[in-house]
Structures are given as structure tokens and as C-alpha cells.
Amino acid sequence: MSVEKKTGFSFGFSKTKQKTQIVHTQAFKDETLIKTDEKIDLISSIDSKKITFQDKSLNEAKKPIVIPCPKNQTLIDKAKKSKEDVDLIDNLEKKLETTEKNGDAEAIKALIAATRDKKESKEDENLQIPIGEKLDEIKELEKVDEPNYEAIDLEQFGKAALRGMGWSEKSGIGLTNKRSFQVVEPELRPKGLGLGAGFNKKSKTDEKDSSENSNLKYRKGAYVEILTGKYQNEYGEILGFDDGLNRVLIKVFDANETVSLLQNFTKLISKSDYEALSKRRRR
């Protein structure tokens, strides 16, 4: 007796996906224009069971910090603002008069009238001390969280405050918009020179002579030329000093007189010049 084998059949479904063809256009010819949303995390170290990633904040470019400077509202600014509000209300009333009367227009007119009455009542209340606005400002300041001083470097804090006041590294300051200024050093007055008294400014010839006679020093026996006073354009020899008043004792040539003058009113000359000038005077 033969065992009949049962024949079975199976069936299934399959979905064929058509391949999408990518068309290259001129707009996306450059691969740099195609943006991807993939984020890459860089690994800094790998331990036995731990992977440490790099801090993203270190890789990101730091933007310049700006600390905004609050503007003070003066009485002139408040007056301008109130005038602008009044002008705005007047313009709205004129527009409503030209438009057709309906429920919305009447409601807007009622709001404008209430606003005007409120402003007039505020102007009449001059005897009350307006501390409400100040209290609101104080409450806003109290709501500020405790500052994190480690978030901003101390060196960058000053620049951040200047940026908030409108300063920029690329532009200069002042009306001339200059970025660098030459430091003007004040010229010290000579010791012993009274207030209001002037002193002779050095000319180009004097600067040239001083550069040539740079080795000369004020000392006993040195020769000088008198620049101002009774003995102007005279020559003499230094006999001594009065350090307390910055004065020198000079024996005037061919006058047999000893005078005391401020050191600033004399100019050092060499011995050869003194002898040459004295010979001319004797002639």
C-alpha cells in the first residue's frame, strides 16, 4: 500500500522599489553648496569602558561679548514720548472721523477717550511722588539671577562694556575717527621760574648747537652765553651754583661783574667758541 505524498504550495509578496535617478543641476554642481545635518562628535580619549568626547564649545568660534548699556531717559525724552503719544491719538481720531461708523470704530473711540482722560489725570497729580516706576525697576533688578563671574574673563569685561556703549575694534573714536593718538607730554617749567613768566623756546639752530655740544655740562669753570635780561648776548664763566633755586653765578666777560641767573636763561658753549667770541669783542 503506497502512501500518497501531499503536495503543498506557498506564495509570498515582494515589493520592488524603483531606483531614483539623481539629476545633477547647475545649482548643486558645487558639492560645497550641499548642506548635511549630520553632526560629528570627536573622541578625545577611550578608556576600558568609557568613551570621552571633545567639548563642542571649544571647537566653536567664540563670539565677542557685549554688555548692553542702559540708556538714561531724560525729561526731554519723556516730553518727546508724551508728545508722540498725543499726536498718535489725534491721528487715530481723524482717521475714525473719516471712516464709516460701526461698532469697532465706536469701541476704538471709547478706548482713545479713556487713554486721554488717564493721561490728563496723571498730569494733574503733580503732588504725588512717582515712586511706582522706580519700585518696578528695583523689582526687575532683584529678579536677576546671581551672576557667574567665571563665565567672562576679567580682561574681556572692559571691552564688552565698551562694545555695549557703541565701541568697535575696527573703528576709531572721537570726531576724527582715529585709532591711535600721539601722547602729548607736558613740558615742565624750569625750577625757580615764577608763575606767568615765560621762557625762551629753543629754535632749530639752538637744537643743532645743543646736539653738537651734548658733551658739555653745567659745572664750575664752564662757559655760557646769556640769552635774556640785562646781559643778553653776553658771555661768561660759571663760578658756582645755587642748587636750591636752580641759579648759576656767572662772571660776565669784559664787565668785571658777577651775576646770578636762572640756569634756563643760559646756554653752554665750548671753550674754543668762548675764546673766539672774546677775541671779536676785544677788537
UniProtKB/TrEMBL annotation:
GO biological process: mRNA splicing, via spliceosome
Residue stretches making up the G-patch domain: 154-200
Record GO cellular component, one term: spliceosomal complex
Listed InterPro entries: G_patch_dom, KOW, Spp2-like, Spp2/MOS2_G-patch
Segments forming a coiled coil: 82-125
Keywords: Coiled coil, Nucleus
A single MF term (Gene Ontology): nucleic acid binding
Localization terms from the record: Nucleus
Keyword Nucleus assigned: yes
Record family assignment: Belongs to the MOS2 family.
Official protein name in the record: G-patch domain-containing protein
